[in-house]
Design brief:
The complex is a heterodimer of chains A (328) and B (324).
Chain A lengths: L3 E13 L4 E13 L3 E6 L5 H9 L7 E10 L2 E2 L5 H7 L4 E4 L13 H12 L4 H14 L16 H13 L5 E5 L7 H18 L2 E6 L2 H7 L2 E6 L2 E7 H6 L4 H8 L49 E4 L2 E3 L6 H7 L1
Parallel strand pairs in A: 3-8, 3-9, 6-7, 7-8
Antiparallel strand pairs in A: 1-2, 1-4, 4-5, 9-10, 10-12, 11-12
Chain B lengths: L1 H28 L4 H6 L5 H10 L6 H15 L12 H36 L4 H15 L2 H15 L11 H31 L2 H8 L4 H29 L3 H6 L5 H10 L3 H29 L1 H8 L2 H12 L1
Helix pairs in contact in B: 1-13, 5-6, 5-8, 5-10, 5-13, 6-8, 7-8, 8-10, 9-10, 10-13, 12-13, 13-14
The chains are: A alpha/beta (328), B mainly alpha (324).
Chain lengths: 328, 324
């Protein structure tokens, strides 16, 4: 039995501005075992990146507030440890691959320096050794080591993403968070980058949180998946649970929006309406206004989470034991 | 890089030709007869005629300009000052070190104060420090030099007696004039540093640096400030050039024998060769400061560096774009 490496309990994050309070993440629970990979799926604005930044403790401190919750990583609550301790974790035990490789690298430092920086920060080794490690990392992610002294503007988008992966993996982290690592890349490069992440993860026994809105990527790379909507986890389970035994209407809606090659369909069935304004979330089930199964009961009170089979959690009234039997 | 510098030096030629033409035209058409002003009321018409003859003031505008340019380009002679009978070059060379020292000290102090205050303001946006510093800088930009100079003399020389009110011999003499002309530069640099840093701090690569577990101080210095430097260098360069051209009013107030005061006196006396020579000299200095600024860009920003190194084809393409 693998040990639990990350446990998020009741995490709630708000962004406070002069005009409004945006409830980005609303009391979510998540856990991750060592070596396991979890896909965090949802639309834009569902709170995926905010969740990731909470784990990194890199939320913008001007506007973001962690309202409640604990994030246990290797037994320590990341929210409550000292800033110095947080720095020790960041880039060392937990690292993150950011969404847009075009802007995530410092344009005035050579890529080698930027990889070396993280190695020097967390290891007591000489610059010489650090440089060797950095070159090793570059070659590991498929970049020629001679390009150590080149600057980001001399690399293509896919290569920059490799540099970022090299930075993230340079200290052999036990948890890697990849925030839409392929969104900014074209399709051929996407596959390469995903394979690279999957391979390195396999070799290092790293746990992975993969943030994406592409269910296909989750099916290919992850063992577990969490479907997020309006800052809540709507459905959580193994990839088999989610794909073969879809229980939440929102997840169903997501699948309906994907073209299927095996079936002849003239039109996709998109989810009607728009994601709710996170500054004014509806009462009760956040998805109810767009849900085709919605009943008045959905909007009355907070919907509980039901475990419909071991490890498969659904936040929907239809998943309630009596509700399900009544429906069928 | 060397190719870039040579190109820039060649580009200075039309600029300087333009400057001479403009100054020459202004001096030619401003009212007042140099012979009259220099020789005084006691001189006879013959004396004045002789003076004009001697200094080539009798030909048409075009003749005079061509003659002047011939002398400047062929002999490298900027002419002789009407008043002191010394060569213009010598006059300028004698005054320049003072102006250079004053400008250097001022810009150095301005950089230190401006960049440090700007960085702190940006990293603690909307804090008390930020409000106070931006407030002071606003006052600093708005204070007229001549007024601030006189106030400095009244407070620090007359009332407190800490610093001498005029002259430029010892470092103690430098303090008041340097503060006077450095204030607006410091304020400009501070404001530019603040806004440039605020923009850079929000960039993704700053978050990347933090995600490595880097200390905040290093994030600011190594990652943010370096990227914020380009506009700061521009402002520092502009201000330094301005100060090198002579802080005309400040030098007059503190009776400092620099380029600025030289120019004011020359204009008052309608000492045409000195004015022309002086302006030409200031233009050359300005061009060099700009060149240095451009070279500094290349040190800070590797993207600009590779543009300078670019082969001929791309260099020409860039030129066409700016012209079009």
């Amino acid at each position: 039995m693998a040990k639990t490496i990350l446990e998020i309990k009741d995490l709630a994050v708000q962004y406070v501005t002069d005009e409004a309070v945006v409830e980005a993440v609303n009391h979510i629970d998540l856990s991750l075992e060592q070596g396991e990979s979890l896909g965090l799926v949802g639309e834009t604005g569902a709170g995926k990146t905010t969740t990731a930044l909470s784990v990194m403790q890199l939320l913008p401190d001007v506007s973001a507030r962690i309202v409640s919750g604990e994030i246990y990583f290797e037994g320590e609550d990341l929210i409550r440890i000292s800033p110095a301790k947080k720095r020790e974790y960041r880039g060392n035990k937990v690292s993150m691959i950011f969404q847009d490789p075009m802007t995530a690298l410092n344009p005035t430092l050579s890529v080698g320096d930027q990889i070396m920086e993280v190695i020097l920060l967390h290891n007591r080794i000489s610059r010489e050794e650090a440089k060797n490690r950095a070159v090793e990392m570059m070659e590991l992610v498929g970049l020629p080591g001679e390009r150590f002294n080149d600057y980001p503007h001399q690399f293509s988008g896919g290569m920059k993403q490799r540099v970022i992966i090299a930075i993230a993996l340079a200290c052999r982290p036990s948890l890697l968070i990849a925030d839409e690592p392929t969104t900014a890349l074209d399709v051929t490069i996407q596959a390469q980058v995903l394979h690279l992440i999957a391979r390195l993860k396999e070799e290092e026994q790293t746990s992975l949180i993969l943030i994406t809105h592409d269910l296909g990527i989750v099916a290919e790379t992850c063992q577990k998946a969490a479907i997020m909507y309006a800052g809540e986890i709507m459905e959580y389970g193994t990839v088999e649970h989610i794909f073969n035994n879809t229980a939440h209407p929102y997840t169903e809606g997501l699948f309906g929006s994907i073209p299927n090659l095996n079936r002849k369909v003239s039109r996709l069935t998109p989810i009607p309406g728009l994601a709710p304004d996170p500054a004014a979330l509806p009462r009760g089930c956040k998805f109810a206004p767009r849900c085709r199964y919605a009943t008045p009961a959905c909007s009355e009170a907070e919907v509980p989470v039901y475990e419909i089979e071991p490890g498969h959690l659904v936040k929907c009234l239809r998943a309630a034991p009596e509700g399900r039997s009544g429906d069928e | 890089m060397i190719r870039f510098i040579i190109k820039r030096l060649l580009m200075m030629i039309p600029v300087l030709l333009g400057v001479t033409l403009v100054v020459f035209t202004i001096m030619y058409f401003t009212p007042g007869d140099p012979a009259q002003i220099i020789l005084g009321d006691m001189a006879t018409e013959e004396d004045r005629e002789l003076f004009r003859e001697e200094h080539g003031l009798n030909g048409s505008f075009v003749e005079q300009y061509i003659n002047y340019m011939k002398r400047v380009i062929v002999e490298g002679d900027l002419g002789t000052s009407y008043t002191t009978k010394m060569s213009v070059t010598k006059e300028i060379v004698a005054r320049f070190p003072t102006t250079f020292k004053l400008a250097g000290v001022s810009i150095l102090i301005a950089c230190i104060i401006g960049i440090v205050a700007g960085v702190i303001s940006a990293t603690r946006q909307y804090s008390v420090f930020d409000h106070v510093a931006t407030g002071i800088s606003l006052i600093g930009v708005s204070l007229p030099n001549f007024w601030q100079g006189m106030m400095n003399i009244i407070v620090f020389s007359v009332w407190l007696g800490w610093f001498p009110p005029s002259g430029f011999s010892t470092p103690k003499h430098w303090v008041l004039p340097a503060i006077t002309i450095g204030t607006s530069s410091a304020a400009n640099i501070m404001r530019m540093t603040r806004s440039s840093m605020l923009e850079v701090i929000r960039q993704d690569y700053i978050r990347t640096a933090r995600s490595k577990g880097q200390k905040e101080g290093v994030v600011i210095r190594r990652h943010a400030l370096r990227n914020a430097l380009i506009p700061i260098i521009t402002v520092v360069g502009l201000n330094f050039g301005k100060l090198l051209g002579g802080a005309v009013l400040t030098e007059s107030i503190f009776s400092i024998a620099g380029i600025g005061k030289l120019m004011v006196d020359a204009i008052k006396a309608k000492n045409t060769p000195l004015v022309q020579g002086g302006v030409l000299f200031i233009a050359v200095v300005m061009c060099f400061v700009n060149l240095i600024v451009d070279i500094l860009y290349a040190f800070v920003d590797p993207k600009i560096r590779s543009q300078y190194m670019a082969p001929r084809r791309t260099a020409y393409k860039g030129k066409e774009e700016t012209n079009g």
